[in-house]
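Handout, section B. The chain below has 544 residues.
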Amino acid sequence: MEMNRKKHGKTGWVAAAVIGAQILALLFFAGQKKGYFIDEIYSWGLANGYYKPFVASYDVFDQWISGEEFHDYMTVQEGQKFAYQSVYYNQTQDVHPPLYYMVLHTICSFMPDFQSKWQGILLNVLFCGGCLVMIFLTARTLMEDDAGAMAAMAVWGFSPGGLSTAIYIRMYMMMTFFTMVTVYLHVKTVKEGQSLKRLFLICAVTFSGLLTQYYFVFIAFFLSAVYVLWKLWKHRWKEAAVYSAALLGSVGLMVAVYPACITQLTRTDEFVANETRNNFMNGAVIARNLISYISDINMDFFSGRIREAAAAAALTAVWCLWTRLAKGRGKPKGETSQISCCDRMAAALMLVWTLSFLAVSMAAVVTGVRYIYNLYPLFCILAVWAVRKVTGWGFEGRTLKFVQAGILALMGVLYLNGFSRGYVRYLYPENEERVRLVEEYKDLYCLYIDNYENAPLTQDLMELSKFQGLYVMPEAKIGQIQAILKGKDTKGGLVVYVDTNEFWSSGYDSREVMERLKKETGAEDCRFLYSNGLSETYILTMAP
């Protein structure tokens, strides 16, 4: 007993050291983050905009504004701390449930009138640490081995995919944590029996996961379905019925707490909800998403070498299987190997993962890797389990440990190569040049040519708040530009943003727009500065 306690104590310290190293790696890459994806800006705005979910909710069109509205949108102002009713309202106007935004708003409420990437990163670090603990506990329960559990933690936590999950300032790290908690609870329940305590925790996590991101429903549904089918197969009708009733109750409670979810998932006038429903019937979209997600896994774990990795894995598996079969011929007649409970659980989890992966591929409107981030930790656990299982067929003793350590070291090399190739996402190093140019021209006035669309303004929000003044107007009003600029000192030039994206916003032809502006203002020169996804930015040099 004393030896086991010392062993577990030592393992705990080693696991804590591995988690600490992964958190340090995360903080290192987070420190290099120079900009934001548009959805990350929405995170702050939806959390902190006081009953104003979008930039367009403010009075920003067809008049000169200072940019203070953008700052207010992103920060908690005095008198608006812990305003959870505002957060709730904002989310009823958007397409996501509110829990993540409420937690982010809580952090920002302790830092009024202030916005920093570290607010979102701090939140992600907390859930990343919790997720690593859940990976360790799940893998140890599944493999009955501490070394394998720590290997699973390392495979996810040091990977470009795992780091990207925690760097992206959205609800996906939080959803990933809840995903791993529910997986762990189900594994423990299968292994040790269904209890009221575990059932309550599963329901609580299901409720929380659904209130974090609707995509949580896929892993929750398939995990629950496989669990109930297993109970029915074991003729444990009562346990299956109690479990099913409890899970349905947690879903019902979520709907009761946030009834707007019904509208968000069924409305026909909202692009994302409508396209999601259409995707389930569109084979071309599903195929596109599958190819895209496999490509993402390739970059996030194999540094673009997934074909070579698959070939090496297949050859190793064939050799190890052949070795196992050869050894089996020497066994006494009638002796068979037993499939353990853990092996059956691993096989069931592989089925759950595959079905969840396919479901996301069917539902996703855009091929964003973020939609499968919550599946990555289980993918890593199952990969480590498979490697240990297969290599155990062909090797023994020290040779086996050497081979497994070599495979882990090879993954480390692939990760380092992935780091050097920029596969850790959401860092946006190119934004430094945009920031430099905005700093250079911040004393100028700025026009934003936009047909009353919200998305491009949100994307460029950080830069727009820096200029002397901002005027947002559609292309149709370019003929009024002389009156708009009246009284404004434009001798040093005029910065112009043009909303160019056809899919999400106005889709203007920037060259045509700038030619018209040049003609109407009498500018002597027009120079391109930079582009940023939904827009292009120019500077007009006015005639003396």
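Note. The chain has a mean pLDDT of 92. Compare this with the example in section A.
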